[in-house]
Amino acid sequence: MAASIEDNVEIRQIDLSKGKGLFASKDFKKGDILFEERPIVSSQFLWNEFYKYTACEYCLKSLETAEEQCQRLTENPGVNLPYPECCEAKPTQYVMCPQCQVVYCCDECRMAAWTEYHRTLCMGPSRQDGEHPLARLGEAWRNTHYPPETSSIMLLAKMIAMVKQVDDKSSVISAFSQFVNLPVNKEEEIAHKLLGENFKQPLELLRQMLTESLFEENVQQWYTPEGFRSLFALVGMNGQGIGSSAISVWVKNCEKLSLSDEEKQKLDGFIDQMYEDLDRVSGTFLDCEGSGLYRLQSTCNHSCLPNAEITFPHNNHRLALVATEDIQIGEEICICYLSECDIGRSRHSRQKLLRENYLFHCGCARCLAEADDEDVTSEEEEDEEEEMTE
């Protein structure tokens, strides 16, 4: 019998300041998968969708073939990828909602979406009607929150729809209430960070529009100004970014091919040039991006010396937590909240980013070891170095 997730990890209360944490229930070696997890709810970013990054409405799997995605992102319809068998996209399996025509990667995803939330959110033949309440809500969000997105109003809409559709409403409400509640001042900071300088006015507009289009009496507390801000902060603090890419899958499968040295060198050159073209035209916006709420992942605390990392091995919203170091039974499992670029910055820079984005002061082993370092950001250090060389 396969081991359950609970055999691998457990959630523990640490203290009032740090809250919960995730701990190993067994020993793990570097490279081991600690667990895989589907989100309670997930949604593609609206700007991402607006710019034709096509993804399964339910699991966020990239729906383009690798070649189609490459042609779009390089703005070169003449690109032809070698080894097309390395692309895993299966357009013949795609299905649509018969009412509104949104696309799913398979019938299983279509049925899951319909059962969980889509019956409520389906716009039917009005999907192309810009005056539909949900279309107006999406437009208001895009006019409020520009790329790169960090959340989505549709994540909140799906949460409400899930409550509306389920018979046992308390179970769904309980699943969402497990996420940490923040003090009012911190909730306001998160909303401010997500929506920019004039956050109060757009937040109120979004609250009114969501109330008018999707009111649910069983969670009426979510619709008050305070409750809506709390809901927004919950998603802002706990939402895990999700990315899927047909190109990335194609490249990984190409790496597994048995090729001659000459063929391998030719393929590597093609891939290097492809990424240069992608970077030149589309920059870092290469993935179908979204956000999701995960029960276990959300309990992982941050460390600037993490022992685990989040990956998306299935090109959809199912995440895997992978050990980046050996982990002993009883040891806390920590991930890094910062980007790969930012984790290499100075202690002062890292602390500044964590305070601004996650509202906490990091006391990990690396930060403690660097406590006597000068309190300057990496940018200030670079400016000083440039001045010294001039």
Automatic annotation (TrEMBL):
A family per Pfam: zf-MYND
Domain SET: 7-338
Cited Gene3D superfamilies: 1.10.220.160, 6.10.140.2220, SET domain
Major site of localization recorded for this protein: cytoplasm
Molecular function as annotated in GO: histone H3K36 trimethyltransferase activity; histone H4K20 trimethyltransferase activity; zinc ion binding
Compartment(s): Cytoplasm
Catalytically driven reaction(s): L-lysyl(36)-[histone H3] + 3 S-adenosyl-L-methionine = N(6),N(6),N(6)-trimethyl-L-lysyl(36)-[histone H3] + 3 S-adenosyl-L-homocysteine + 3 H(+); L-lysyl-[protein] + 3 S-adenosyl-L-methionine = N(6),N(6),N(6)-trimethyl-L-lysyl-[protein] + 3 S-adenosyl-L-homocysteine + 3 H(+); L-lysyl(20)-[histone H4] + 3 S-adenosyl-L-methionine = N(6),N(6),N(6)-trimethyl-L-lysyl(20)-[histone H4] + 3 S-adenosyl-L-homocysteine + 3 H(+)
GO cellular component, one term: cytoplasm
Enzyme Commission identifier(s): 2.1.1.359, 2.1.1.372
GO biological process, one term: methylation
Keywords: Cytoplasm, Metal-binding, Methyltransferase, S-adenosyl-L-methionine, Transferase, Zinc, Zinc-finger
Cross-referenced InterPro entries: SET_dom, SET_dom_sf, SMYD5_SET, Znf_MYND
PROSITE patterns to which the protein is assigned, alphabetical: SET (PS50280)
Name of the molecule in the record: Protein-lysine N-trimethyltransferase SMYD5
Species whose genome carries this gene: Mizuhopecten yessoensis (Japanese scallop)
